Each structure stands twice: as C-alpha cells, then as structure tokens.
C-alpha cells in the first residue's frame, strides 16, 4: 500500500483532452501557477497555498502548503481538469490513536474555474464531512529559475532502498539555481521520473544535506571525497538508511 500510494503521489496524472482535441495537441496548462485560499474548520482558519503545474512529461501536478502549520509540499495523488472543472485528490499518512501504525487519509477538492481563470470555487471533503474552499490566483505561471554556479553536491546520485525482500533504486538529480538548490527524484521501478523536492538544503562546512517531499525527509552527509551521500530516509513509522553514490559522468565540484 505504501509503495502504491507513493507512485501516484510523485508521478502526476494526465490532463484530460478537451472535446474534439487530441492529447498531443493539448495547450499549455491554463491553471499553472500559485493559488491561495482559506479553509475554515470548527472556527479555525487554515491558510492554504496551492501550486499547480505540469511535469517534464506533460502530466498535471499539484502541491499544497499550509504555512500556519509550517507544513509544505503535500503532493496530490490524482485528479482531472476538463477546461472548466478541476478535481484534486490528496493523501496524508496519519498515525493511529496508539501511534503504532500509519494509514493513508484521503480527501478531495472539486472546483469550478471562473471564466477569467483567476478563481476556483469549490468544496473540500473527506470520508465524513465537506467544507467550502475557494482559491484566488497569485501567479499565472510557475517560475523556472535560471542555473547558478554548481555546488559540491550538484550532480546525479543513485542508491537502493532495501525493503528486505527487494531493493528499490532511487536517483537524485541535484543542481544549483538562482533561487537555491533543486532536487528531482527518479524511481525507475515505480515509473517515477522527475519528482520535484519541496525543499533542499546543503551546508558546505558540515557537508550536511536535507531533501524533503511532503512528510518524507532524506537527510545525511556527503563523504569527504564528494563521491557518496550517506542518507537517512524518514517518514511516519518508516526509516531506511540509503547509501547514494555519485554517477561517474558528473564529477564533484571543488569546495
């Protein structure tokens, strides 16, 4: 179950063609950009920032931020857009009351897009309740930052997550930009390619690195020779140690 949900979380989903339009002729995603809204539940207002975009393969992606809760980068597990109606589905891993097991909690968001493309009017609902949630557009497109001089951790890194009965190969692509470091994750066995990390940090003095996707955090250190990353991958009730090695076609940058 954990592996299946992770595949959908990170791989995006295909935009639905408009009537009479082929998939290959789809225009640029008209909802791409940043949106903000306020969700009120039992008198408590939760400010939400929604980031809509497409990945390198043209699949729609969505990330939710909850700034008041200091929680960022929750990815959608699926959805659709037909030109006027948007549906998104999200899942978060939650602990049971005893704190001994984690389970996926799924909720959905259904909204109508205004003719101007500046407002989403909709409802968010889980298995039991529903609440109104409207978004206003902040930006019309997702900024693609320009490259910046490489850091020692820039490059491609590959390692294996060992489940005991099987091993899953993971590849990080890390590069510096004008807005800081970016990291993309590939998991070939699960057909994940180019999943964008929400936050990436690297400290040259300690060689420490941290990469996060929602509630999954990869943290550790680069070896002194710059050729490997010793990483702890942590998420609710799961912890793996992964040794990433630098792919040979990209050599380390001098400190």
Word description of this protein:
It contains 1 helix and 18 strands. With 255 residues, it is mainly beta. The chain folds into 2 domains: 136 residues, Beta Barrel (Lipocalin); 92 residues, Beta Barrel (Lipocalin). It has a 9-stranded antiparallel sheet with strand order 13-12-11-10-18-17-16-15-14. The chain has an 8-stranded antiparallel beta barrel with strand order 2-3-4-5-6-7-8-9. Strand 12 and strand 13 form a beta hairpin. The longest helix has 10 residues.
Percent of residues in helices comes to under 10%
Q: What's the multimeric state? A: single chain
The proportion of residues in beta strands is over 45%
Number of domains: 2
Give the CATH level 1 class of the largest domain.
Mainly Beta
CATH superfamily of the largest domain: Quinohemoprotein amine dehydrogenase alpha subunit, domain 2
Count of helical regions: 1
Summarize the structure.
The chain is mainly beta and 255 residues long. It has one helix at 2-11, and strands at residues 13-14, 33-41, 44-54, 59-66, 71-81, 85-95, 102-113, 119-125, 130-137, 155-162, 167-177, 180-187, 192-196, 199-203, 208-213, 216-222, 228-235, 238-246.
Helix-strand blueprint:
Layout: H1 2-11, E1 13-14, E2 33-41, E3 44-54, E4 59-66, E5 71-81, E6 85-95, E7 102-113, E8 119-125, E9 130-137, E10 155-162, E11 167-177, E12 180-187, E13 192-196, E14 199-203, E15 208-213, E16 216-222, E17 228-235, E18 238-246
Antiparallel strand pairs: 1-4, 2-3, 2-9, 3-4, 4-5, 5-6, 6-7, 7-8, 8-9, 10-11, 10-18, 11-12, 12-13, 14-15, 15-16, 16-17, 17-18
């Amino acid at each position: 179950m954990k592996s299946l949900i992770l595949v959908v979380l990170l791989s995006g989903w295909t935009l639905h063609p408009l009537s009479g339009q082929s998939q290959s002729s789809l225009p640029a995603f008209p909802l791409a950009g940043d949106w903000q809204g306020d969700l009120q539940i039992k008198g408590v207002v939760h400010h939400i920032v929604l980031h809509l975009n497409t990945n390198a393969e043209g699949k729609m992606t969505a990330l939710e931020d909850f700034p008041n809760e200091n929680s960022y980068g929750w990815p959608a597990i699926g959805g659709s857009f037909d030109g006027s109606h948007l549906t998104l589905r999200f899942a978060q891993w939650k602990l049971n009351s005893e704190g001994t097991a984690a389970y996926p909690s799924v909720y959905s968001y259904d909204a109508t897009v205004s003719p101007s493309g500046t407002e989403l009017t909709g409802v968010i609902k889980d298995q039991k309740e529903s609440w109104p949630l409207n978004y206003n557009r902040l930006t019309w497109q997702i900024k693609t930052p320009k490259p910046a001089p490489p850091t020692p951790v820039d490059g491609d890194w590959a390692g294996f997550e060992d489940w005991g009965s099987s091993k899953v190969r993971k590849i990080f692509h890390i590069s510096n930009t004008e807005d800081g470091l970016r990291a993309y994750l590939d998991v070939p066995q699960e057909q994940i390619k180019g999943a964008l990390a929400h936050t990436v940090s690297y400290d040259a003095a300690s060689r420490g690195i941290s990469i996060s996707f929602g509630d999954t955090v990869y943290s550790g250190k680069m070896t002194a020779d710059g050729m490997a990353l010793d990483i702890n991958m942590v998420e609710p009730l799961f912890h793996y140690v992964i040794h990433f090695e630098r792919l040979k076609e990209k050599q380390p940058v001098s400190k």
